[in-house]
């Protein structure tokens, strides 16, 4: 699942800054929820986990579910019934059923014999345990082990928070609001739609029947086998029975959506009628990706399910969801409009489809037995969202995005002291479970699985995951089942050392928090000294006892880059290894950043690597070049490497022509930019960046796109042109303004693949009519991806009056668009791209903070304040923020205000820190000149 709760949070500098600090759209929902979860509550939930778990001696085998909804009128009330077939495995007088907010109107317990005859036993007394979300049925006389049916009738209300069985809406072509009902059950919200046994290991079959208005249609996991009319004019839609699956994977929707289909492939894409013309790409991509999975896994999707539908929803906080046979997405993650959708959005759409389709095997056919093993669902999906997309579209090189968009980002978050192991539980409550949907479950797990696959070799890994799925078909798994598959497939192969079993290898990575740094020190007398230590972002701990089974590869100067390097192992704290590398030649470890760890070298080897990068960039593999930049920056920040070495290394980027190393450099440059802006040495920093990008910029056209351009070159152009304009290089600002004005004047539209940069920076120096033009374009747009891009572009203006008027549209002003709550937050964060925008936001909040609190929520106000603090670098800026914080003392918690002030204090003190002084010295010593 891809998840997003407050999508607007990612709207901060979206597009232009997406390459710097973007959060995976499918995990962002949970990461924002985690900010609001009380840590003491999590500890309590973990301690009481067993109280919230169902007894293991009652197992559901089948649900017969009926629902009656009149959502077409906007009525939230619905009713239903469910027959829960239960395998009672020991004598009991109690049946526990999950229930969140439903009113049970009747219940009956039946005995079911082997011939499927049923006998009524009794109507049960029951109590409601609201805290644990149980309805507890008491049986008068204990029942013996056998098959039973619990028949329940119930009433409920469609939710309005995009969770459970919920109502949403859209505006049709005439502007009329249309309503629909849809579902989002992961992780434990099936219980809010109908009474059920809502744990992932409790798989059962489902037969669904939905009564609805004939102008609407119902869709669910399985195909419809019959539609029948009722005397009241409504219709019943009957669906075929599902395979055994977890309750959280059940899905249905009642709407007036249209669909396009490929009958031969048994795939359809649903969308609102006024957006159905944007569905073709998703259908085509879905077919190609499913074919790629079928061939790669050798276990065709059609062996399990007869069809797969995709649905684009205007309101879907989860981002995307892998419901078996009925995948759901936010519109901007599914719908593609030629001439409007950008290359970044197309990448997101393609990889998210691949992510959800990967789940059809990893999550649906084989499911984590409890949420502590969530990484076995999300890790595979994160890995194959890039690999399967690459198999479907090899010319786009999607797999080359994995390290910079997944692995390197999670290395940053996993370096915190508070990080958790991949296998981990915080309890069984709603908040405790959802807090596990984080970068560890997604990005770290995907990166670790990628490492496992490379160590085993791609063919052996493929055999292993086929075995893993086949052996656990329609079952639930934990780490043991994964290890068993690895042990069997590697038995008799010379892959793992004799002293490292599959279990020892796997558990060292999935059951320990954090990751190591591999220190490679050369004696220059025929030896390498290798040591490992846990890597922390902010300190060095030499006595940390954690040991990982580290697979590593080494190449040396002059080695062929085509030959696969041999795996070696470090399974102790330190080891001395013989080396034949001449003292004046470099060595490089963890080739192409395959392993999930950082690598540090002695200074002499670092400088030899730097010299190689300058003299012949391609003498070092592309992904290793990216890793060197990323590792050096983060090693310096943790005080493990002299910052001067990092900065000297970054100077090589002026010769770099590939996107992945530049993206790694982009993060480092952004970090320094955020601290240098407003400082006395800022001009020197501008000249430094100008020097790095100058040669590359000469090879790019900022405002045009070639028909045969590589995807990675599009990413590179966006990074370079963004820096060129941000550093106020005249040619960039002129070119973007000219391109924008040509569109404004009706001469030539801006190509979507350069629109984010052109609209944002062109607006900086364009006439007022350009702002009005883009705002009018936003008013007319019905494409959510384009609207998001335009909202962020409009926030780039440096005109104070325009900024003030624009911010007022978030709460309703003279300029008014039909913004939803998410877009209102997008507007407020969009202006953070410039200091003038930050100042405008401070002024806006002074007068309108109560609206933000009452309408968008206190957490949103706090998020905005913390964002302003992060961009406060000077005493004058601090004074502005202090006035605002004084104003907000009645609405913000004291710890939030203190956090903002602490951030500002660190920013103001930074120039006199080790980093600040060394960077200033480096800039002064090098005397960079304008390119």
Automatic annotation (TrEMBL):
<feature type="binding site">
    <location>
        <position position="359"/>
    </location>
    <ligand>
        <name>Zn(2+)</name>
    </ligand>
</feature>
<keyword id="KW-0862">Zinc</keyword>
<keyword id="KW-0479">Metal-binding</keyword>
<keyword id="KW-0449">Lipoprotein</keyword>
<dbReference type="GO" id="GO:0008270">
    <property type="term" value="F:zinc ion binding"/>
</dbReference>
<dbReference type="InterPro" id="IPR014782">
    <property type="entry name" value="Peptidase_M1_dom"/>
</dbReference>
<keyword id="KW-0472">Membrane</keyword>
<keyword id="KW-0325">Glycoprotein</keyword>
<keyword id="KW-1133">Transmembrane helix</keyword>
<dbReference type="InterPro" id="IPR034016">
    <property type="entry name" value="M1_APN-typ"/>
</dbReference>
<keyword id="KW-0812">Transmembrane</keyword>
<dbReference type="GO" id="GO:0070006">
    <property type="term" value="F:metalloaminopeptidase activity"/>
</dbReference>
<keyword id="KW-0735">Signal-anchor</keyword>
<feature type="active site" description="Proton acceptor">
    <location>
        <position position="356"/>
    </location>
</feature>
<dbReference type="Pfam" id="PF01433">
    <property type="entry name" value="Peptidase_M1"/>
</dbReference>
<feature type="binding site">
    <location>
        <position position="378"/>
    </location>
    <ligand>
        <name>Zn(2+)</name>
    </ligand>
</feature>
<keyword id="KW-1015">Disulfide bond</keyword>
<dbReference type="InterPro" id="IPR027268">
    <property type="entry name" value="Peptidase_M4/M1_CTD_sf"/>
</dbReference>
<keyword id="KW-0732">Signal</keyword>
<feature type="domain" description="Aminopeptidase N-like N-terminal">
    <location>
        <begin position="59"/>
        <end position="249"/>
    </location>
</feature>
<dbReference type="InterPro" id="IPR001930">
    <property type="entry name" value="Peptidase_M1"/>
</dbReference>
<feature type="site" description="Transition state stabilizer">
    <location>
        <position position="442"/>
    </location>
</feature>
<dbReference type="GO" id="GO:0006508">
    <property type="term" value="P:proteolysis"/>
</dbReference>
<keyword id="KW-1003">Cell membrane</keyword>
<keyword id="KW-0031">Aminopeptidase</keyword>
<keyword id="KW-0336">GPI-anchor</keyword>
<dbReference type="InterPro" id="IPR045357">
    <property type="entry name" value="Aminopeptidase_N-like_N"/>
</dbReference>
<dbReference type="Pfam" id="PF11838">
    <property type="entry name" value="ERAP1_C"/>
</dbReference>
<dbReference type="GO" id="GO:0043171">
    <property type="term" value="P:peptide catabolic process"/>
</dbReference>
<dbReference type="GO" id="GO:0005737">
    <property type="term" value="C:cytoplasm"/>
</dbReference>
<dbReference type="InterPro" id="IPR050344">
    <property type="entry name" value="Peptidase_M1_aminopeptidases"/>
</dbReference>
<dbReference type="InterPro" id="IPR042097">
    <property type="entry name" value="Aminopeptidase_N-like_N_sf"/>
</dbReference>
<dbReference type="InterPro" id="IPR024571">
    <property type="entry name" value="ERAP1-like_C_dom"/>
</dbReference>
<feature type="domain" description="Peptidase M1 membrane alanine aminopeptidase">
    <location>
        <begin position="281"/>
        <end position="498"/>
    </location>
</feature>
<keyword id="KW-0645">Protease</keyword>
<feature type="binding site">
    <location>
        <position position="355"/>
    </location>
    <ligand>
        <name>Zn(2+)</name>
    </ligand>
</feature>
<dbReference type="GO" id="GO:0098552">
    <property type="term" value="C:side of membrane"/>
</dbReference>
<comment type="similarity">
    <text>Belongs to the peptidase M1 family.</text>
</comment>
<protein>
    <recommendedName>
        <fullName>Aminopeptidase</fullName>
        <ecNumber>3.4.11.-</ecNumber>
    </recommendedName>
</protein>
<dbReference type="GO" id="GO:0042277">
    <property type="term" value="F:peptide binding"/>
</dbReference>
<dbReference type="Pfam" id="PF17900">
    <property type="entry name" value="Peptidase_M1_N"/>
</dbReference>
<dbReference type="GO" id="GO:0005886">
    <property type="term" value="C:plasma membrane"/>
</dbReference>
């Amino acid at each position: 699942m891809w998840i997003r709760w407050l999508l607007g949070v990612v709207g901060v500098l979206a597009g232009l800054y997406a390459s710097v600090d973007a959060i995976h759209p499918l995990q962002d929902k949970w990461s924002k929820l985690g900010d609001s979860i009380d840590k003491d509550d999590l500890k309590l939930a973990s301690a009481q986990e067993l109280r919230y778990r169902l007894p293991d001696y009652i197992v559901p085998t089948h649900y017969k579910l009926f629902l009656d909804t009149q959502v077409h009128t906007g009525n939230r009330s619905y009713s239903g019934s469910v027959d829960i077939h239960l395998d009672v495995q020991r004598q009991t007088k109690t049946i526990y059923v999950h229930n969140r907010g439903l009113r049970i109107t009747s219940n009956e317990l039946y005995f079911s014999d082997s011939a499927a005859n049923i006998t009524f036993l009794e109507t049960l007394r029951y109590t409601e345990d609201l805290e644990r979300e149980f309805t507890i049925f008491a049986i008068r006389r204990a029942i013996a082990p056998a098959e039973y049916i619990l028949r329940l009738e119930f009433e409920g209300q469609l939710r309005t928070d995009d969770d459970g069985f919920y109502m949403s809406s859209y505006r049709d072509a005439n502007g009329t609001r249309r309503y629909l009902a849809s579902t989002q059950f992961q992780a434990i919200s099936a219980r809010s739609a109908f009474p059920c046994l809502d744990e992932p290991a409790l798989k059962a079959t489902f037969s669904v029947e939905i009564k609805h208005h004939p102008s609407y249609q119902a869709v669910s996991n399985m195909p419809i086998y019959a539609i029948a009319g009722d005397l009241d004019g409504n219709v019943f839609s009957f669906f075929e029975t599902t395979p055994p699956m977890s309750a959280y994977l059940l899905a249905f929707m009642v709407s007036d959506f249209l669909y396009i289909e490929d009958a031969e492939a048994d795939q359809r894409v649903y969308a609102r009628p006024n957006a159905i013309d944007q569905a073709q790409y998703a259908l085509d991509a879905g077919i190609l990706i499913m074919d790629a999975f079928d061939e790669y896994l050798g276990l065709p999707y059609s062996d399990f399910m007869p069809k797969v539908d995709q649905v684009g929803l205007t309101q879907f906080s989860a981002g995307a969801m892998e419901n078996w046979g009925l995948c759901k997405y936010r519109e901007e993650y599914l719908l593609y409009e030629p001439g409007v959708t950008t290359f970044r959005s197309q990448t997101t759409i393609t990889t998210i489809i691949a992510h959800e389709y990967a789940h059809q095997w990893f999550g649906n056919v084989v499911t984590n037995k409890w949420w502590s093993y969530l990484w076995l669902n999300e890790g595979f999906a994160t890995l194959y969202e890039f690999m399967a997309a690459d198999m479907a579209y090899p010319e786009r090189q999607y797999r080359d995005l994995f390290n910079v968009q997944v692995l390197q980002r999670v290395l940053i978050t996993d370096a915190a002291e508070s990080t958790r192991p991949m296998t981990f539980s915080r309890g069984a409550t709603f908040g405790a479970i959802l807090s596990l949907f984080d970068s560890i479950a997604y990005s770290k797990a995907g990166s670790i699985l990628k490492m496992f696959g490379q160590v085993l070799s791609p063919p052996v890994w493929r055999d292993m995951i086929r075995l893993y799925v086949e052996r656990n078909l329609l079952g639930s798994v934990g780490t043991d089942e994964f290890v068993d598959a690895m042990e069997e497939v590697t038995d008799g192969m010379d892959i793992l050392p004799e002293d490292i079993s599959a279990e020892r290898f796997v558990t060292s990575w999935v059951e320990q928090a954090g990751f190591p740094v591999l220190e490679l020190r050369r004696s220059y007398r025929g030896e390498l000294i290798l040591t490992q230590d846990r890597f922390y972002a902010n300190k060095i701990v030499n006595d940390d006892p954690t040991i990982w089974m580290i697979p590593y590869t080494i190449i040396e100067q002059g080695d062929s880059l085509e030959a696969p390097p041999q795996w070696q192992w470090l399974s102790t704290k330190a080891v001395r290894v013989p080396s034949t590398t001449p003292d004046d030649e470099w060595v490089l470890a963890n080739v192409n950043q395959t392993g999930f760890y950082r690598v540090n070298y002695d200074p002499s080897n670092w400088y030899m690597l730097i010299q190689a990068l300058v003299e012949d960039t391609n003498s070092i593999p592309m992904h290793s070049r990216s890793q060197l930049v990323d590792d050096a920056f983060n090693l310096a920040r943790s005080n493990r490497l002299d910052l001067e070495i990092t900065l000297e290394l970054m100077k090589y980027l002026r010769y770099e022509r590939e996107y992945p190393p530049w993206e790694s450099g982009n993060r480092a440059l952004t970090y320094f930019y955020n601290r240098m802006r407003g400082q006395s040495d800022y001009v020197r920093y501008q000249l430094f960046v100008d020097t790095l990008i100058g040669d590359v910029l000469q090879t790019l056209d900022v405002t045009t796109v070639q028909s045969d351009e590589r995807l990675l070159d599009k990413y590179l152009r966006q990074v370079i042109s963004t820096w060129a304009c941000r550093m106020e290089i005249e040619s960039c600002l002129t070119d973007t303004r000219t391109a924008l004005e040509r569109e404004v004047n009706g001469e030539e539209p801006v190509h979507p693949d350069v629109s984010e940069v052109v609209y944002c920076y062109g607006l900086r120096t364009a006439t007022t009519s350009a702002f009005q033009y883009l705002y009018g374009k936003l008013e007319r747009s019905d494409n959510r991806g384009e609207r998001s891009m335009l909202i962020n572009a409009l926030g780039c203006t440096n005109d104070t009056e325009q900024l003030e008027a624009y911010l007022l549209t978030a709460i309703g002003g003279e300029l008014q668009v039909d913004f939803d709550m998410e877009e209102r937050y997008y507007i407020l964060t969009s202006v953070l791209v410039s200091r003038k925008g930050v100042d405008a936001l401070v002024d806006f909040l002074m007068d309108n903070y109560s609206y933000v609190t009452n309408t968008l929520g206190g957490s949103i106000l706090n998020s905005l304040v913390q964002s302003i603090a992060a961009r406060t670098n000077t005493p004058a800026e601090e004074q502005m923020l202090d006035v605002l914080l004084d104003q907000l003392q009645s609405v913000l918690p004291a710890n939030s205000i203190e956090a903002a002030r602490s951030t500002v204090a660190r920013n103001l003190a930074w120039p006199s820190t080790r980093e600040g002084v060394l960077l200033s010295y480096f800039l002064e010593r090098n005397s960079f000149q304008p390119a």
